[in-house]
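=== Per-residue structure ===
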Amino acid sequence: MASASAVSRTKAPTRVPMAPHRKTSLAAGVLYLITFISIPTLALYGPIREAGYMVGTGSDTGVIVGGILELIVALAGVGTAVVLFSVLKKQNETLAVGLIGSRIVEAAAIFVGIGSLLTMVTLRQDGAGADATVVGDALLALYDRVFLLGQSTMPIVNALLLGTLMYQSRLVPRLLPILGLIGAPLLLAANTGILFDLWDRTSAIPAIAFIPIAIWEFSLGAYLVVKGFRPEGLARLGVTSSQASESRG
């Protein structure tokens, strides 16, 4: 009897496998949180905006690190749409495909912006000198305009597409997508002001206008990591009650 009890106590507990929809929500949530790692780039890119950068001799490490961070963000952004597609297509396949396309356009713009800054670094390291100052200014202006179109305008499209999908499906609390849907027109207005030179891209107005969408995306990522999809939302999309229960594991 004692031996049987010992065997019983040492038997490993049976692990309940994670439901597919829980894996999807966890992966999407992690990817959304990764997209926030580029926040330090504003400081990292500081030296490249200083007068005389092209003829200076300081370190380029910050710019290179910033480029790597933006590269990761671009790939993670595409990943969020791809991972969520299997679930979101059950609500509206057209909007779900549109979200992937929007994320790809955003990533492409980020790649172009990174390329312009790294080209500046290359010219500087090759000792192009004062003759490259005009080229450097042009490349920096290109980065700012591409940033406006990519990392500042495409989030508006993303918020409208994903916000609509999440609001209709109720996969997450409706307050979260509402933040994105409210933030989209605010950011559009701020970007329009930048386009017509009413204020600078790094001024307070665009930063404030971006807050609702930033909160929406960060909260969505955190919710999907911690909670996963809501069972009632999964049920609306045709997932059985047992699967919905498992997705909360």
About this structure: Confidence is low (pLDDT under 50) at residues 241-249.
